[in-house]
Amino acid sequence: MSITAAGRETTSEEARMWYRRARRWTQLTFVEDDPLHFDREFWVDVMTRTRSTGACISAGGYVAYYPSKIPFHYTSKFLGDMDLFGMVNEDARRLDMNVMARIDPHAVHADAAEAHPEWIARDEEGNAMEHWAYPDIWLTCPFSTYYSEFIVDITREIVREYDVDAVFANRWEGSSSISYSEGARKLYFDATGNQLPVGADRSTRAWAEYFAWRSDQLSRQIVAWDEATRSVNPRSSFIPNRGARMVRDLNSELVKGMYPAFFIDKQGRSPREAIWAAGRVGKRARGVFPDRPVSLISSVGPENHQHRWKDSVASGAELQAWIVDGFVHGATPWFTKFNARVPDARWVEPIAHAFGLHEKAEALYGTKTPTARVAIFDAITPAGADSPTGGYMSEDSSEDGLCQALLEARIPFEYIDGDALTDRRIHQFTVVVVPGSVDLSVDHIAVLGDFLDAGGRLLADSEAVLDSDGTANGLAGLLGVRVTGDIRLGVQNNYAAIVDPTHPSATAFAGTERILGGTSIVPVEAESWTSVPFRFIPDFPDLPMEEVYPREAPRDPAVVLGEHDNGGRTAFVAFDLPALFWEALQVDHGELIGGLVRWLLDGDEPVTVVGQGLVDIAVRSSDEGVAVSIVNLDNPKAMRGQLRSSTPIGTQTISIALPADTSTASVRTLTEPGFTSVDAVDGRVTFDVPGVDLLEVVEVAWTSPLVRGALAGVES
Question: How far is CA 682 from CA 159, 611, 659, in A?
Answer without folding.
Answer: 60, 21, 11
